[in-house]
Amino acid sequence: MVSTSPEVASHAITPGKGLKRNYLSFSEIVAQSIGTIAPSGTPGLVISVVFATAGNGTWLAYAFATIALLIVAFQINVFATRVATPGALYVYAGLGLGPFLGVISGWALLIGYVFTAAAVINGTVYTSLAVFHSLGVTTLDTVLNYGIAVIATFAAWWLAYRDIRLSTRTTLAIELTTIVLILALVAGYFIHRQSIIDEPQLHLEEVDFDKLRLGLVLAFFSFVGFESAAVLGAEAKDPHRLIPRSVIVSVIGVGLLFIIASYGLTSGFRGANPPLSTAEAPLTTLANTFGAGTVGFLVSIGVALSFFACILGSINAAARVLYTLSHHGLFHRTARSTHATNSTPHIAVTLVAIIALVHAVALTFGGWGLLDGYGILGSIATYGFLVSYFLVSLGAPLYLRQQGSLKFYHVLSSAAAIVLLAVVLVGTVYPVPAWPYNILPYVFLGLLGVGVAYFLLQRVIAPDQLVAVENDLLGTPPAVKG
Known about the structure:
It is globular, with a radius of gyration of 22 Å. It is mainly α and 482 residues long. 73% of the residues lie in helices and 0% in strands.
C-alpha cells in the first residue's frame, strides 16, 4: 500500500523537483528524441523490411509517415508549449481527458519505452554481430550474443545513471556522425551512378494501395519515440519553447533521412542478389557497389552504435515516466528518488535497464532469433506508443477548450491525427498476422491492464493519494502562452 502522508501528497504534485532544472540546451533536447528514434538504425535494418512490403513505394511510405507524425506532433505540442513535466504524454493525456485515461496513456507510454529498450538491445547485438562477421569473426556468436547485450545495457545504464547531459551528448555525437556517413554514402552512390533519377520508384511501378498501406504501417514504426524530448520538461532550458521545436525538428529531420536513404537503397539494390529485403547489412553492400567499402564498414559500426544510443534514450525516457508515476503513487515510492549528486532518477533508471535486459535475453535464451526478438518486443512497444499518441490527440482539443483557446483548425488536425493513427493500428491487426504477432495485442493489453488495475486499487485503498494526482492533472491550468 502506498503511504498517504502529507509528505507523500506534496511530493506527488511536484514531480521533477529533484531533477536538474534549466540544464539542457536545444541540441541536447533534440538528441533525446533522435536517440530514441535511432534514425541510423532504420537504413541499416528497418528499411529492408519496409521494402519487402512497399517495394518501389518505400520512399513514399516514409514521406506519408513523416506527414502523419507531423500532425501527431502538433497535438503533442498543444501541451508541450504550455506544460513542462517529466511525465510527458502521461500528464498531457490526463490534462485533456482526466486521470483515468491519463493513467492509461502513462502506462502505455512506459510499456512503449521499456520494450523499445529491450528490442534495441537485440538490434544492437544483431548489428554488432554483422560488424564482427565482416571482420571474419564467425565462431563466437553465442558468447558475443549475451556479452554484447549485457555490456551495451550496462553502458547505457551507467550513462543514464550518471548524467542526462552526458547521455544526450553521447547520443548526439553517435547519431550525427553516423547520419553524415549515411548521407555521404547515398550521395556517393548517386554520383557514381551519374543520375538521381530512378524511374521505377518515381513511377511507383508494381505498387498498389494495399502494399503502400502496409508499408506506411511499417514506416510509422521507424519514428516511434520522436516525442521523447517531452520527458525532459523539468530539465530543459526554456522548455515551453525548446521542447516543441525539438519534437518538430526530430520528425522533419529524421523523415528526410528516411526518404533519402530508402530511395537510395531501393535504387542501389535494383537487380541485386541477395535483394534489399534480405540483405544483412544493406548500407555496407551499397558501399561495396562503388568501391566505398571502408565508408560502408564505418557506417555498420555507426548503425550498431545508433541502436545503443536508442537503448540509452529509451532508458532515460522510461525512467522519467516511471519517476512521475511513482510521484503519483502509481508505482513503488522508491522509483521517485533522485541521486543526491547526479540528480538523475537513478532507481527508475536501474529498474528499467534490468527489465529491458531480462526481456531481451529471455527471448534469445528461449530460442528466438535476434530479429524475431527485435520484432516481437518492438511490436509490443509500438502498441504502447499508438495508444498514448491516440489519447493525446483526442485530448488536445478538449484541453484547448478548457483553456478557451480552441479553434476549428485544432479540431481538424486532431481528427486527422486520430484517423491516421487508427489506420496504423488497424494495419497491425488486419489482416491477422502470423503467430506470435497475432497474440501480441493481447500481451500488450495484459501489461496495460496490470497498471490500470493498480490505479483502480489505489483509488480504493489510498484515495487521498489519488486526490493529489487529480490536483496535478486537473488543477489550476497553467497560463496560456501565445
